[in-house]
Amino acid sequence: MEMELNAGQRELQAEVRAFVDEHVAPFADEFDRKERLPEELVRELGARGYLGGIVPEAYGGRGMDALSWGLLCEQIGRGSASLLSILTVHSMVVQALVKWGGEAQRSRWLPRLATGETLGAFALTEPEVGSDAGSSQTAARAEDGEYVLDGEKRWISCGQIAGLFLVFAKVDGQSAAFLVERDTPGFSTVPMGGLLGFRAAMLAELHMAGCRVPEENLVGRAGFGFSHVGGAALDQGRYCVGWGSLGMMQGCVDACLEYAGHRKQFGTFIKGHQLVQEMVADMIVQTKAARLMCHHAASLKERGEPSLILETSIAKYFTSRATVKAALDAVQIHGANGCREGYPVARYLRDAKILEIIEGSNQMQQIIIAKYGYQEHILAKRKARTDRTT
Hints:
This protein is of the alpha+beta class. The chain has three domains: 7-119, Orthogonal Bundle (Butyryl-Coa Dehydrogenase, subunit A, domain 1); 122-223, Butyryl-CoA Dehydrogenase, subunit A, domain 2; 226-389, Butyryl-CoA Dehydrogenase, subunit A, domain 3 (Up-down Bundle), CATH 1.20.140. The chain has helices at residues 7-23, 28-34, 39-47, 66-79, 81-100, 103-115, 225-260, 274-303, 308-334, 345-355, 362-389, and strands spanning 120-123, 139-143, 146-156, 164-171, 174-181, 187-191, 204-214, 218-219, 264-265, 268-269. The strands form three sheets. It has a four-stranded mixed sheet, covered by helices on one side. The protein has a four-stranded antiparallel sheet with strand order 2-3-7-6, with no helix packed on it. A hairpin with a 2-residue loop joins strand 4 (164-171) and strand 5. Helix 7 (225-260) runs antiparallel to helix 10 (345-355), helix 9 runs antiparallel to helix 10 and helix 9 packs across helix 11. The two termini are 35 Å apart.
């Protein structure tokens, strides 16, 4: 069921909604054309404490509860998927440090990440390696109290402007995660453009050639890279994407209700046409279902329930798929107007497709969900046999 918002959560929701309506949504198409978010907008995220939303208060963050963080992601996703992407990868670095970073790492970096003085980026994907993270070709070797990294990463959101990168590499065949600062010798970035969606997310390729980082920049330990550090970050990313997808779905609903209420065809407003009503009705129902899933994941996250991983995957999978359908129908309702700038639905459609790919493609989510389903089925059968014999 949908969680009831407390006074603080309602205040945050209204605050972020007003921020998005004034500073984000009206300019999102322009951001896409320029393939860049304004520096002042990103700074404002830090000034308002949004970048430090999940940073513990002890390190200068807002220490938001799970539902508050979800409400923030929902509103940002409604305004701009590119801005949501920046918030998502930044929070993934934060989550990795909170859960697996040493105290020295947390004390140094979390206060900077909380204010936006430093932006974080998550660097896992490579040119020839997407979802198969175990086949990473980026290598690191220990040498004279440092690690030397060699390799490339691609499709890194915020990669053009981030100051701190969480980079995954193999050390003696074991996955490991490293903190790499932008100005590290041997480290460079190349902007990526011409994307289908998330055009303003400032993606980049990362190049490491003899990139030397101190031993203390290893997060956790070798062997814990993808399974532990990356797992914590990706779970956080899926949570953000699920809520952000919900925001985009709500954006589609709002745009269609507005458009259908003043657009006339055959002498009547199209909101009275039954086939339009069918699409709008499905959109509303799917949005409500997605909201329930996101609230359920928030409830589990707040309680620290083990089933959170599965339910977050389910929420991300359902909402991202439903968002693509909502965006397709939104463009259909807008007709030719839905295929050009000036209406947000064309951008929603391009961005929605990306939601099905990032932070683990929907096919990967299907694998996760199916495996859990089989496991639960086997456990249920064993329990039933035990109950019959006792």
